[in-house]
Amino acid sequence: MKKYLILLPAILLLGSCKTNQLYINVLEPAPVTVPAYVKNVGVINRSKPTDETKVFDEIDRVFTLESVDLDRDGAAEAIKGLSDELLKNNRFTEVKSLDNIDFRTSSLESFPTPLSWEIVEQICRESSADALFSLEKFDTDTHVSYSANPVEISTPLGPVPGIEHQADMSTMVKTGWRIYDPSSQVILDEYIEAQTTSSSGRGINPLVAAKALTGRKAAVSEVSNQAGQAYAYRILPYRIRVYRDYYVKGSNNFKIAKRKAQMGMWDEAGELWNQETLSRNMKIAGRASYNMAIISEINGDLDTAISWARKAFGDYNVKLARDYLRMLENRRYKNDVLKEQGN
Fold first, then answer.
1. Phi, psi of 301 (to 5 degrees)
2. Is 1.25.40.10 the CATH number for 6-26+247-340?
């Protein structure tokens, strides 16, 4: 019993004083399951507009008072955010950004029609990729509003009334993604997300106020990069903190084990609890069996933890063990999913 999953051995005393509480760090499966055989992936940008959709992009640039192509630059940042985040994790051997493939989408709806499997297989074959991550949709939607507020302007002759103009700009960045698995010919995921970035500017007239709206391009690039990172998280496992109650009263060994646990000496606490599983006192034996389930989970042995929890509830009717048993069985199921995901 050497490898602890303890994140913080923080002990929180409950009102009944019969139990304490500890927090452990557990690994959760990714929301999207990518088969374990997928090791090399390609990333493509399919969101580039055709002439049909370029008209709407030109309108967007007119109203935002900027000549930069936010959609083009933002899409590139989204691809970069996804690729960089995937490379940080050892789940994949190689992540290739396939910039040489020029896809266009004419769909003005929320999502374009999926790529044909013939095209997907050809791309994966030529790039030695096991699966294809595709930015299917990228769009920025900008709204600008103006307001005028009375202010006092300082002059050599004293303050005089004036008008300050304010321009507020809100830009929504919308991304849509798909994951294609050519081996099973299954689209593993379809996902649409929208994030908003805002900026404002002030000036003595509307034009000055509008010109003060600086940093919009950088803000959109940052949000786009974050959108790519966020999508990568959907296919990567993540850790969460969960709490567990364990018994601290019942015998002198429980009192000693409590102090051992507070010092992080879980092996020694477990040895004392194990001794009490042989107690003739049903309540003490039941609590000790329950605590043995806790120490087994701490050490990553879910099968043994489940066995102890079943004993605590089935033989001794320990109420906490019933709900805890469900948690453990759920964790074991999720561990099986993690194995399927190659983690």
1. -100, 85
2. yes
